[in-house]
Every structure is written in C-alpha cells, then in structure tokens.
Amino acid sequence: MFEIGDHVVYPYHGAGTITDKVERTILGKEETYVVLTFPMNQMTIMLPEEKLQASGIRSVITLDKVQELIEHSLTLKPAQEFSRRDINDKHDKMKSGCIFDCTTIYTELMLKKKHSPDKLHIEERKQLDFARQLLKSELDFVEGLSSDEIEEFLSMQNREDTSELPSS
Questions:
Q1: Hey, which of 1, 12, 16, 58 would disulfide with 38, CB 3.0 to 4.6 Å?
Q2: What are the residue ranges spanned by the domains of the chain?
Q3: Sheet holding 58-59: strands in order across?
Q4: 154: left (phi > 0), else alpha (psi -120 to 50), else beta?
Q5: Is the model's pLDDT at 43 over the cut of 70?
C-alpha cells in the first residue's frame, strides 16, 4: 500500500505526504494509523490504515498525466449560467478527488471569468479559488514539474490562443 514519504491526494484536502505510521489503542482495539500532512492548509490528520482505500486516497499523478490534463482542458468550454444545482454538482466532483474533474471545474470557470469577468457568482469564485488550490497542491508534488511550469499550466486556462500552451 502506501509507505512513509509517499505523496498522496486525499479528496477535498489536496495533496500531502505520509509522514508516519503509529499504533493507537482506541476503545480497546489496537490499530495502525497513517499520519498525513497537508501543506496547502497546514493540517495533519491520522487515518486508520485499513480504511485508506475506502477513504479515496490515491497517489499523486505523474508527469505523463499532466499532458493528459492539458489535452483534456483544451476540449472544455466556459461554464454555463449560475445555478445552485451546478454548484452542488461541482462541489461533489471536487470531493471525489479526481484531478480531471477538478481541472474541468477550474478551466470552465476560468474561461467563464475571461469571457465575462463580472458574471462569476460568489459561489463560483469560491469554487474557482478552491479548485486552483487543489490542483496546485497536487501539481507541486509531481516529479519533474517546476513551479514555473505549474503556474504556466494554471494560467494557460485563461488563454485564448492555445498555440502558446506548454508541451510536456
């Protein structure tokens, strides 16, 4: 499974590092807990090792997947008019921990913001900021990806001319 030092993504918390494994006795039952540290929100949590799979934790993506994210984002169009249902759907997608869902939300809202900057509802602005944080937290742990390349990826969602996009 996961080892100390592995970089993982915990849905809705972003990417972090497994910093320790500890034994704890709770209600008379001894269990091994994995200690996760998340730099994005400066939080440390402990999860039972036996429940890691069910929690949705996954490994951080690889450099190859970044290229797939770029290609995926090129197919997207601006988000539609605001609706409470869309906000709830986007919220559920971000909770899933899927980086493609997060990229979709981020890109669609960035495109909507670019085409009509005053049209983003406050909830959409919050989701745009949170999706950016989640993406950045994971991309920060991708081996072979510099901070400049991460910023370029995040800012390219705002470009009209896709010929300027980075190629990994």
A1: 16
A2: 7-57, 63-164
A3: 43-48, 29-38, 14-26, 7-10, 58-59
A4: alpha
A5: yes
The pLDDT tens digits for 18-28 are: 999 999 998 99
Q: Residue 55's closest CA among 64, 63, 44, 46?
A: 46
Q: Which residues of 16-46 are buried (b: 16+ CB within 10 A; e: fewer)?
A: bbbeeeeeeeeeeeeeebbbbebeeeeeeee
pLDDT tens digits, one per residue of 100-136: 999 999 999 998 888 876 788 899 999 999 999 999 9
| Residues in the chain, overall count | 168
Question: For 63-164, CATH number?
Answer: 1.20.58.1290
The reported pTM is 0.86
Q: Tokens standing for 35?
A: 């200690």
Query: Which of these CATH numbers, 3.40.50.300, 3.40.50.360, 3.50.50.60, 2.40.10.170, describes 7-57?
Result: 2.40.10.170
